[in-house]
Design brief:
elongated; 12 strands; alpha/beta
C-alpha cells in the first residue's frame, strides 16, 4: 500500500485496542484482581535513603507513569524525566526515554507471585534513580544489580501508603487527522492549488485518530500509529515524505506554504508551542496532490485560507467541526518504543 490514493473501505472494522477480559467473579471478590502491584523503590533527593511504595497499576499503563509518579514523590522542583532511569527487577538494562514507553505488562516474564492483603498477585520490583550525566555505564549496571536484589536488599526504606495510579499518568492525548476526497476521481484534488470546492464539507471525509502518548514520542511514531488505525477505513498511507503538519504546533509558514511540515525524528515536546497547546495537541497527515491521483493536500485542502482561519487562528475544534462520529477512532499503540526506534536519526 503506497502513498496517495483515496479508496475507502465499505465496512470499517472496530479499531479500538483496549480490551480487558476480566473474571467477573474474581473481580467481585477482589476489585484489584486485574491490577499489578509494582513495588517502587525511589532514591530520595540528595541520596538520603529510599522510599518504598506499592503502586497498583493496570497492565496497559506505561512505565512512564511510574517515572512521573516517582519524580513527584521526590518533591524536588529541579527533577525532570531526562535526569532519571528506572531499573526493573530481572531486566538486563534500565528503561530510558524510549523504553519507558513500554507497558508494565510487557515485563510479565519478570513478575513473581506474592501475597498482598490475603490475595496472591503477580508483582515486580522497580528502582527509580538519578542517572547522572549518563556517561558512566557503571551507574546503570549498579542499578540493574540493585533492582535484581529487591526487595530484600533494602531494610530501612520509608514506607509510603499504597496508591492506585491512573492508567494514563504521564501521558497526553494526541489526535491525528487525515482526509480523503469523497469522489476518488475529483480532479480538483489532483492539483496542489487552493480550491473552495475542496473545502466544502460534502467533498471530503475527515478521520480523527485519538491516542495517548508521552511527550517523548516522536512525530514519525504518531504518523505510523495514525496509519495503523486508519488502515481499517481507507487503503491509503498518509504522511509519506514527512507530509505531516499541525494547526497548533510549529510556527506558521508563508503564503506559499502556510502550514509547515515536521521532521519525523522530532519529539513532540520539542515542537514550538507544545506547552501552550496541551489541550489541542494534534497532527495532520496528508499526501501531495499529483495529476491523476486525488489527495487532500496541504494546499488544496488543509492550508486553504478558510481552514487556517478556523483551526489555527480561531482554534476551533477540528474533530467537532469536520469529523463524523463513525470516523472517530480510538487507538492504543501496541508498541511505542518500536515506533520511536524506527525514526531515530
Amino acid at each position: 500500500m503506497g502513498c496517495g490514493g483515496s479508496e475507502e473501505n465499505d465496512t470499517p472494522e472496530d479499531v479500538v485496542v483496549d480490551v480487558h477480559d476480566d473474571d467477573d467473579q474474581e473481580e467481585a471478590q477482589n476489585p484489584r484482581a486485574h491490577l499489578i502491584p509494582v513495588q517502587l523503590f525511589i532514591e530520595q533527593a540528595g541520596g538520603d535513603g529510599y522510599s518504598k511504595q506499592i503502586c497498583w497499576c493496570e497492565p496497559e499503563m506505561l512505565w512512564a507513569g511510574l517515572l512521573e509518579h516517582g519524580i513527584q514523590s521526590r518533591n524536588s522542583e529541579e527533577d525532570c524525566w531526562e535526569d532519571f532511569e528506572v531499573a526493573v527487577a530481572g531486566a538486563g538494562s534500565p528503561l530510558n526515554m524510549i523504553t519507558i514507553n513500554h507497558t508494565i505488562g510487557r515485563f510479565a516474564a519478570n513478575f513473581k507471585s506474592a501475597d498482598f492483603g490475603g490475595f496472591v498477585y503477580k508483582t515486580v520490583c522497580a528502582y527509580l534513580y538519578p542517572k547522572g550525566d549518563g556517561k558512566d555505564k557503571g551507574i546503570a549496571d549498579e542499578a540493574v544489580k540493585f533492582a535484581s536484589e529487591l526487595p530484600g536488599n533494602v531494610k530501612d526504606a520509608q514506607e509510603l501508603p499504597d496508591v492506585d495510579l491512573e492508567k494514563r499518568l504521564g501521558q497526553l492525548q494526541v489526535c491525528v487527522y487525515a482526509a480523503v476526497p469523497v469522489d476518488p476521481n475529483d480532479e480538483a484534488f489532483t492539483k496542489d492549488v487552493t480550491s473552495e470546492h475542496c473545502v466544502e464539507r460534502e467533498s471530503t471525509t475527515v478521520y480523527c485518530v485519538k491516542m495517548w502518548a508521552t511527550r517523548k514520542v516522536v512525530v514519525g511514531a504518531f504518523v505510523d500509529a495514525g496509519n495503523a488505525a486508519l488502515s481499517k477505513f481507507v487503503n491509503v498511507k498518509f504522511g509519506c515524505g514527512e507530509a505531516v503538519t499541525s494547526y497548533a504546533l510549529g510556527h506558521p509558514g508563508g503564503e506559499d506554504h502556510p502550514l509547515l511540515d515536521f521532521e519525523v525524528s522530532d519529539e513532540i515536546e520539542d515542537l514550538d508551542f507544545f506547552e501552550e497547546a496541551q489541550d489541542r495537541l494534534h497532527f495532520v497527515i496528508y499526501n501531495h496532490a499529483e495529476d491523476g491521483k486525488a489527495s487532500c493536500d496541504v494546499k488544496n485542502f488543509w492550508g486553504n485560507r478558510s481552514m487556517i482561519e478556523e483551526y489555527r487562528d480561531k482554534k476551533q475544534d477540528l474533530a467537532k467541526a469536520l469529523v463524523k462520529a463513525e470516523h472517530n477512532v480510538t487507538f492504543d499503540a501496541p508498541d511505542w518504543p518500536a515506533l520511536i526506534e524506527a525514526h531515530q536519526p
